[in-house]
Amino acid sequence: MSVRTIEVREPVMARNNEYAAEVRRRLDAARVTAFNFVSSPGSGKTMLLERTVRDLGAELPIAVITGDVQTQNDADRLAVHTNRLVQAVVTGGACHLDALQVLTSLDAIDLDATRLLFIENVGNLVCPANWDLGELAKIVLFTVTEGEDKPLKYPKMFQNARYAVLTKTDLLPYVPFDVDLAIANAHRINPELQFLQLSATTGAGLTGWFDFLRGAVPAPVA
Amino acid sequence: MSVRTIEVREPVMARNNEYAAEVRRRLDAARVTAFNFVSSPGSGKTMLLERTVRDLGAELPIAVITGDVQTQNDADRLAVHTNRLVQAVVTGGACHLDALQVLTSLDAIDLDATRLLFIENVGNLVCPANWDLGELAKIVLFTVTEGEDKPLKYPKMFQNARYAVLTKTDLLPYVPFDVDLAIANAHRINPELQFLQLSATTGAGLTGWFDFLRGAVPAPVA
Description:
The structure is a homodimer. Chain A has one domain (9-216): P-loop containing nucleotide triphosphate hydrolases (Rossmann fold), CATH 3.40.50.300. Chain A contains eight helices and seven strands; from the N terminus they run αβαβαβαββααβαβα. Chain A has helices at 2-29, 45-56, 73-79, 99-106, 150-153, 155-160, 179-189, 206-216, and strands spanning 33-38, 62-68, 86-90, 116-120, 137-143, 163-167, 194-197. A seven-stranded parallel β-sheet of chain A has the order 3-2-4-1-5-6-7, sandwiched between helices. In chain A, strand 6, helix 7 (179-189) and strand 7 form a beta-alpha-beta unit. Chains A and B meet through helix 1 and helix 5 of A and helix 1 and helix 5 of B.
């Protein structure tokens, strides 16, 4: 069965990569920094984005594209915190976003008035790993309740991400989770992976997260 | 792009369903009860199976088929607790098990000496939903750290499961999770879904889980 799937996947992936290149050209032209948020379901992608849009959105204009299998709940949650566009993409069963969906979404976003674009992918540690959406980098969220072995079990995702955010650190006192072991496991897969740690619930680590985002955004053209 | 994918998926799914029917015939003939464990990564499927194999395995002979994308870590964890076979299936990147993998695994299992078969699927709330593996029922694990909205966001999985196990209930004091709301959301998607609640860490709820399993297994032929 796998052979029949691969025959179709290669041309589909090639077309995806052309769309991703076009997304990247448009973002570069407008000097927009884009991150592709990937993780398991329930790792806190939307909650971190809520805090980020609310607390950093006045300083850095932020647009968001949310991908979801069936609903637009995440987009609705985010829209409460901003007057800027939150573009919902319902994949209709597909387990990841593709670059054509992102490219189409860009038409609805005022890129010249945007500094930072978050693409919130479908909650899934397998499917989104190999899909380039035209982002600067993938950020994988990794929750302290998930177990230290996740980078070893889902290596493609941790290989293809440039940054990892350890979330829900407020729960560390209550779970048997060894942060050093989790990071070491991730570095076995991807030695370049850079970690941030935070809790969107308590706010711990958010200052570092916001500083990271400020540093990722180029200065506006004078 | 989706059209090209669907052309391939339909015959692949039809073949899968034939294999699933063959799995079901063989399990029925041997009076083996099989459950397909599905959930997000890190929801505690392996840990619950560890406790189940260790504490119930002497009373009810249990075999396990674990599916994983790249590793056989889960099978190794389980093998510590039993002398019986733990069959690891590495999907090599695929985001779910299929029935042919299960059918092939059955050849390695002494079905006549088995009462209960757990198929631990890949950690993924999207892909495994539509794949019949020949099981009696899907059991979806749902962790209290994931947010009450998961049934609404991943409805196919909750539609196609007959049972849901709410896991890591020991963390309820530390997370903003409303159990009644989570169950109500799940019942909006699937009114017949039956819930169990437990913590494999503290052991709370395990007696109910074991009783459920005892009730699901037919009496041995005299």
